[in-house]
Amino acid sequence: MILLTKLAIRIVGIFVLGAVVYLAVTYGQVWRGSRRDQTQPAPAIIVFGAAQYNGRPSAVLKARLDHAVDLYRRRLAPLVVVTGGRQPGDPFTEASVAAEYLLERGIPDRAVLREVSGESSWQSLSAAAGILADRHIDEALLVSDRFHSLRIEAIAGELGLTGHVSPTPTSPITGWTERRAMGREALAVAVGRIIGFRRQANIDAVVR
Asked: The domain 36-207: what is its CATH number?
């Protein structure tokens, strides 16, 4: 019995150590991914949604949109897909607020496509990929914050979309706030790689 107990403790210890090492390696990959910029010409830009307040974009969403405007004006892509649904009781979707912001900055309405149902990165990117697939497009620039880069690139690959991460250089998320965000991303990537990002998104939806 004592030998079995010691063996069980050793097995649990090895498992815990392996999990810690796996998370540490994944965190390093998230950090390295946050330092990459794959900006290049592409058929479309996909902007990941973020909070909006009574019809006005949050500082995080504004930074992402400003970057998309810059990419569009540099003629790196002719289409911009904005994403994000609405919170319960909110009359505005993140995508509709984002679209209005782009229109105010001179991007023509014909160049702005709206994905208004997504409640997670996977849902939004899946829907955006579907919108682009209807136009026979399977490649896009992915605009979000730096810490988000590795996961959205992985999700794009799972969806059959060639995604080039182009993180915003003006995100207000910096310092320890960014490091904590990277920690959350590392956990999300670690789990998503094991069970699949689609299943992970469904589990998160059930929990919420």
From this structure: 3.40.50.620
State the Cα–Cα distance between residues 168 and 62, nearest whole angstrom. 10
Q: Which residues contact 22 (CB under 8 A, 6 or more apart)?
A: 190
The candidate with the shortest Cα–Cα distance to 168, out of 143, 140, 142, is 143
Alpha-carbon gap, residue 30 to 182, rounded angstroms: 7
Instruction: Judge whether residue 72 has pLDDT over 90.
Output: yes
- In sequence order, the 6+-apart residues with CB closer than 8 A to the CB of 132 are 43, 44, 46, 79, 81, 113, 138, 140, 161
Neighbour tally for 10: CB within 10 Å: 10
180-203: average pLDDT: 90
Beta carbons of 62 and 158 less than 8 angstroms apart: no
What's this model's pTM, rounded to 2 decimal places? 0.90
Q: Of 18-27, 65-74, 77-86, which gets the smallest average pLDDT?
A: 18-27
**What is the Cα–Cα distance from 131 to 34, expressed in whole angstroms?**
27
